[in-house]
Amino acid sequence: MLNRRDVLKLGSAAGAAMLFPAGRLASALSDDPPMPAPFSMPLSLPPDLMPVHRTSTTDFYEVEISETEHEILPGTRTRLLTYNGSFPGPTIRATRGRETVIRHTNRMGKPATVHLHGANVPASSDGHPLDPIAPGTSRVYRYPNHQAAATLWYHDHTHHAESEQVYRGLAGAYLLSDPVGRRLPLPSGRYDIPLLIRDAKFGGDGRLVYRYDDYLNRPTILVNGRPQPYLDVERRVYRLRLVNCSNLEPFRFTLTEGASFLQIASDGGFLPVPAMRREIDLWPSERAEVVVDFRSVRPGSQVVLENSIAADDLKRPIMQFRVGGGGPSGIVARASSAEGFLRGLGIRDWPIEAPPRRTPSKHRRFVLSADPNTHEFHINGRGFDPERVDATIEHGATEIWEIVNGDGALGIPHAMHLHLVQFQILDRNGHPEPSYDAYPKDTVRTNPGDVVRIQATFDGYTGRYPFHCHFMDHSSHSMMGQFEVVR
Length: 487
Known about the structure:
Pfam families: Cu-oxidase_2 (PF07731), Cu-oxidase_3 (PF07732). This protein is mainly β and 487 residues long.
């Protein structure tokens, strides 16, 4: 497991920072604006995107990608890249089996793509880095939504530019529901809250300062576009959807006041077995859905969501929950087990099945490593080549991929993401992965020196799809490959 000392080391000159020293120094020396005190600004929620047209089978949307200004820091306007002028982008709510069609129009002066992260979609709508929307033109993306309910997110994926364009704002939540999830008596409506969490650095004039590999020089934590906000909550149960939208920042989420999480879902949807957690690790692009019981907290208390492995103490507090009155007259006892928590919600049987057993037809090995001489990141010793297919896969095949973090000496972490599929993590360094971290996943964390085996079944669509490190500064510097699913 990555601890706080490891994180500090990973950001030092002995780790990834050595690759871009000039940029890091320039960012570190830039002027910093006055920052609001933690928990002095209320949490905001991105607006829901409304369909412009509906049929019996499909919801149609229009989105403009443009450069706009927002007041992130009090009294200062910050120039951002946005979807429909929103930071983060508007929340898209979809239903399994009902198609979502979105026409994105690029009003920026540079190319853009849109990737629905974690989605099983045709290659033509995957948002491949080499399939951009040119300035002044539009592109229609079609999402069939033939997959389980999940917290997905959409973001820019333009080749060599995704790191900066996501950092400057091009990201939003895509919440997919299905009949199974709707039948569960989980918190809903205003008690079901997406939290898009990331780090940032602001210049003295309020601008967003972007440099490659600027991990330790992004001192501000934003939640739904607000710096370390607060949220007034009732003494009841809430569902929180945690999304790590950072380029490089890892989080280990904890709650103060002795509160715990009931984790009910991972990247690709509900867990086969929910788990009580005191801490939850999420690296860039990972998601977790949790239920928190504020009935067990005294009225007037402040529960703080923290990052216990923050490299800077200023970044440790993420947001504050201000617990109001009302609710039960006394303190409700905290559930000591996931089963007890579920029973308290009225759930006797958890209706989610474990992944089916399949026989793999192919084993592959991918080594992730950095080259300090060229400032590039490689997979199997090679940078990304748009003409190269690194794996040709028969449609319907189940494969085991061995992901090796070859940067043990440099101390650089990587997070491998596969487009198109959700997978199961079989083991890490020869040991089984905890069930709450094993399935369903589309991104896998790898500490320096780790060897992780994942198993995926490619039974969705045919076509060419990327796989890459989701530390976006790494993928922007060539840590990406392509697989092609064929019949």
